[in-house]
Amino acid sequence: MSFTTPKLPATGIVANLSEEDRDTLSSYGTFHLAQVGAVLIEQGHSHGKLFFTLSGLMHARRVDDGNDILLGRIEPGEWVGEVDLFDPSSAVCSVVAVEPTQYWEITRDDLEEFLNNYNAAGIILMIGLATTLSQRIRGITAKLAEQADINKFREMTVELE
Fold first, then answer.
1. What is the pTM of this model?
2. Overall CATH class of domain 12-160
3. Where are the domains of the chain?
4. Pairwise CA distance, residues 96 & 132, whole Å
5. Which of 63, 95, 101, 138 could make a disulfide contact with 34, Cβ separation 3.0–4.6 Å?
6. pLDDT single digits (tens) 81-131
7. Cβ-defined contacts of 137-140 (< 8 Å, 24+)
8. CB atoms within 10 A of CB 35
9. Is 132 within 8 Å of 13 (Cβ atoms)?
10. pLDDT tens digits for range 2-38
11. Tell me, what DSSP letter sits at residue 106?
């Protein structure tokens, strides 16, 4: 019987890495299986890790004033945890497995070691992370602008009454 070592697939921010670089990066982190209800990131706590979803489904959720708000779905090929990785603080939301989920995680220290040892691959990875952060900031900005427009409309409606 032979066993294979898990490897990061050529998707998401590692899609542009060579197979050899993905295999090397894989060895800097660890692979896990989360059961339904497992919390990878807990709102209000720092975690210092980057997570890559291989299979399954997770939800990003935030509790505000007793309201549980679904912020988004984390599907295979997506990354989470990058904000706390670069700015260790309390997490703004929780990430919870809603299906059995296979994922890979890497700590900041291990990521820094990879970046120092494999500069070219590290640059590609960092550009991918920066792209992910930029896309998420753009999405949040659009939602905030939409909410501001809704609030202006509500104010105008109240003034007309």
1. 0.81
2. mainly beta
3. 12-160
4. 20
5. 101
6. 888 888 888 888 899 999 999 999 999 999 999 999 999 999 999 998 898
7. none
8. 10
9. yes
10. 445 689 999 888 999 999 999 999 999 999 999 999 9
11. E
